[in-house]
Specification:
The structure is a single chain. By secondary structure, the chain is an alpha+beta fold. It folds into two domains: 144 residues, Aminopeptidase (3-Layer(aba) Sandwich); 33 residues, no CATH class. 41% of the residues lie in helices and 19% in strands. A hairpin with a 2-residue loop joins strand 2 and strand 3.
């Protein structure tokens, strides 16, 4: 199998149709599915087109033989309440499964580093898009370290839990298991 000609570049509005397809593929691989993006192609096209024109946002693509097979969504985040320095936030990094292990993601990240250097930005942050073990190993191998974690809930569930009566002192899950094991060990020591 030949490698083909690999290159990366900034996306243009002409790339949106191919990017919609790739974004939907990334959604299919993600355990987040519905939270990753919409499946409504016209809406997704509008969102990607807007990203291309958004100030401080970059949409990079990876190509093999002039076919887009990967993308990287990057956004500059200005200093704010939780960060006293600007940083680049990689919102998504994805390469089609059959084109992985060819250096395309590394090439996209090299472009991100160039953007960071040109904008005098000292840190790059990413969100793990699919959560796959391979993705985590890839990022760790490049020096990305954990920096907190996002949590997700759908609005109806959060609303239901906020409006239901709160039960003080009730343990859940792992706390219940630990407490039960401690009680059993105490009983064993006491010979019960």
């Amino acid at each position: 199998m030949t490698q083909g000609v690999n290159k990366t570049r900034k996306a243009t509005v002409d790339d949106v149709e191919a990017l919609v397809e790739l974004t939907l593929l990334a959604r299919d691989e993600s355990p987040l599915t519905t939270q990753l993006c919409t499946t409504q192609t016209p809406h997704l096209s509008n969102l990607l087109g807007a990203w291309i024109g958004l100030e401080g946002a970059f949409l990079l693509v990876a190509e093999v033989d002039n076919t887009i097979v990967g993308f990287c969504l990057v956004q500059r985040v200005q200093p704010n309440l939780f960060s006293d320095v600007a940083f680049l936030q990689i919102e998504g990094l994805f390469v089609r499964k059959e084109f992985r292990r060819r250096g395309l993601a590394r090439n996209l990240l090299t472009d991100v580093v160039r953007i960071a250097e040109a904008e005098d930005i000292s840190h790059i942050v990413t969100i793990v898009l699919t959560g796959a073990r391979q993705e985590l190993r890839f990022l760790a191998g490049l020096g990305f370290a954990p920096a907190g974690a996002r949590r997700i809930v759908d609005t109806p569930t959060l609303n239901r839990r906020l409006t239901s009566p709160h039960r003080e002192g009730r343990m859940r899950g792992i706390d219940e298991l630990i407490a039960r094991r401690r009680r059993n060990k105490e009983r064993e020591k006491a010979g019960l």
